[in-house]
Automatic annotation (TrEMBL):
The keyword Lyase applies. GO terms for biological process: lipid metabolic process. Keywords: Lyase. It comes from Mytilus coruscus (Sea mussel). This is Plc.
């Protein structure tokens, strides 16, 4: 991100991301959505992360639906903070979603998130306003996707974004048409609203890996040589080449 105009809003650039970021640790094909760990995703240029937590005995554990992914929110934030310490001109955007109701816990999901974020407060952007890149540098920008306990800011409301997320499609053509239409809206409208497009879905009994083999090449071909604001694009199984193509759309020449 160091090559970008720091006066730009983060809403007015293209950001590569992952859907179900942490779903790389299970051997179940229909649960796995990534082949790369969080650390490797950071290294290849992923900057949006879809982190889904469930509160169990007052600890925020990472889940995909009912499947535990052998990690926790604290470890995610530690890895991200360590990365930002080494790369202070970068910023990360993190959706925090409540995946399942709390179990054996005597605090709310919101309080658990607040308490955890407090340990990383020097790196957290918890305001509800969308920052410019200069403000965002070195920060983890929280998109909260859960019920708040009070009016104290905890980040940008996830539901305030413009989102394309047909997570269950009838066909590849239906999903790809929705993705393409949303990307075209993102580039044609000038505003300070974050656009988020999920280039992922479920179709019949196909696995996320199989679906990614169809959708990711379409996305690469669509973006190749284009420039402009495409917003956040979240993907299953992205590779370095596709991530680089998304980043390159920020070039103005």
């Amino acid at each position: 991100m160091k090559a970008l105009d720091f006066s730009k809003s983060i809403a007015n650039i293209s950001i590569p991301g992952t859907h179900e970021t942490m779903a790389s640790t299970t051997g179940i094909p229909w649960v796995m959505c990534q082949s790369l760990s969080l650390g490797v995703q950071l290294q290849i240029g992923i900057r949006f992360f879809d982190i889904r937590c469930s509160l169990y005995t007052n600890e925020l554990l990472i889940y995909h639906s009912k499947f535990y992914l052998h990690s926790n929110f604290t470890q995610c934030l530690t890895d991200m903070s360590d990365f930002l310490n080494k790369h202070p001109t970068e910023f990360l955007v993190v959706r925090v979603r409540e995946e399942n109701p709390p179990i054996h816990s005597n605090i709310s999901f919101c309080k658990a998130v607040r308490d955890t974020l407090e340990n990383y407060k020097s790196h957290i952007w918890s305001e509800e306003t969308v920052p410019i890149i200069e403000q965002a540098k070195g920060k983890i920008i929280i998109l909260y996707d859960f019920s708040k306990d009070d009016r104290t800011p905890i980040g940008i409301p996830y539901r305030s974004l413009k989102i394309e997320d047909i997570w269950s499609a009838k066909s590849f053509s239906e999903k790809w048409k929705a993705v393409q239409n949303h990307l075209e809206r993102a580039t044609s409208i000038v505003d300070n609203q974050i656009y988020l497009t999920y280039n992922s879905t479920t179709i019949n009994i196909d696995t996320p890996c199989y679906i990614a083999r169809e959708l990711n090449p379409k996305l690469y071909d669509y973006l190749k040589g284009k420039h402009g604001r495409f917003g956040i694009i979240a993907m299953d199984y992205p590779g370095p080449k596709l991530v680089e193509e998304i980043i390159n759309t920020n070039n103005e020449d």
